[in-house]
Amino acid sequence: MSSRVFSVILLPTAECNVACTYCFENKEPHRLPMLLVPLLTRQLLDHLEHEDIEECEIYWQGGEAMIMGPAWFVEAGKIMNDAAAARGKRFTHYLQTNLISYSPAWNDVLFSLFGGSLGTSMDFPNHHRKLFKGGAEAYSATWRKRLLQAQEAGLEIGVIAVLHQGSLDAGPDLFYRHYTEELGVSSFQVNTPFPGGPAQAVAAEFDLDKAALSEFLSGLFDIWMERGYHHGIKVGPFDSLIDHFTGAPARLPCIWKENCSNQFISVDSKGTVAQCDCWVTSYPESFFGNVFRDGDLTKMLRTSPARREFIERPKHLMEHEDCLSCRFLSICHGGCPVRTYSALGTMLAKDPYCEVYKAVFSRAEIHSRSLLRRRFLTGSKPANSFGTGRMTAPAVELAEKNAGSPVND
Ligand code: SF4
Ligand code: SF4
Ligand code: SF4
Predict the structure, then answer these.
(1) Which of 37, 87, 197, 295 could, after both became Cys, cross-link 282 (CB 3.0–4.6 A)?
(2) Paired sense of beta strands 289-290 and 272-274, if any
């Protein structure tokens, strides 16, 4: 049996209970009918069998996934897990939510189905995440109240922050202190933005100057290494880069995987299959097919012309970009197709964040070298054991898929 893991970003609804200004969702009031969960499950399990894969990670997102209610997840989770167990397979479930409708009524299913952890999102400063009534300020207040309730319930919470001009203006020190001191979270992740879907008025605020963004991220990396790394604070994607450069097992974000099409698909509430949530909600021209209509998921993935472009992207980059001569090629692989597509209208080019990635990789190298030196001299062990065991919710892996987008949660 292969040790490969297949990951599915599952959007049970596109509906949402808030109104972020940067949202690329088409918030159709459609929900995944429970009646179709067995069919979807069978399709996924058949695919695992065809590909000789034992485990499938399900990243539940939206729209807003909590709109489905806790009872829906109890039932869907049972259908999926029972069917997987009967075929010697395993689903591992993660939840990404905006937390706005969280209440203690969710705790049972959060502990039983989601391993006591969840991922949520909050930017700093919050300019764009808004309630229908009351705007960004009311959103922040409600979100903080829910965060506190969830923390008190003992849930492990990972937070995704999408960087925007306001974050750069605030600077890395204020930014870091906001998450760790004001919010009291021990796991957060910074995502680079991109304008998914149709052009929007806020897009300009996300078109960040690459040099300024590199400087911000390098500064944040340094602050985390100095104040957080040795004290159990996780900051993604820096933590996985430190793992990588110190030779520990590293779980790098999808944007730096050899080819994201080897591991992920996204399925929406109508059964539409695409590379990830960013594509399924923004770019219909890149759909792979429909899991309820097309019968055989494996065949769909093997024959989809839209998917072929993803598969062939690395080869194209080697031939037409300077990635081949880049010393970070083995970690970056040319970056994220959707960031490239949203900026350039084609995925057959290297990621427009190339320069930013190089700055962050260089920082990771420097910090890793000094960690290794220190370990060698003192005989000490790594302060963190990132990359092993169950990750803190989607904050580590799933969130990276959404990175930067107008996060779909
Ligand atoms: S970005 Fe996420 S939380 Fe915000 S409106 Fe869109 S789906 Fe809802
Ligand atoms: S976010 Fe980018 S790298 Fe990740 S799955 Fe989507 S297209 Fe691939
Ligand atoms: S850092 Fe830039 S040049 Fe290097 S592999 Fe990534 S996209 Fe290509």
Answers:
(1) 197
(2) antiparallel
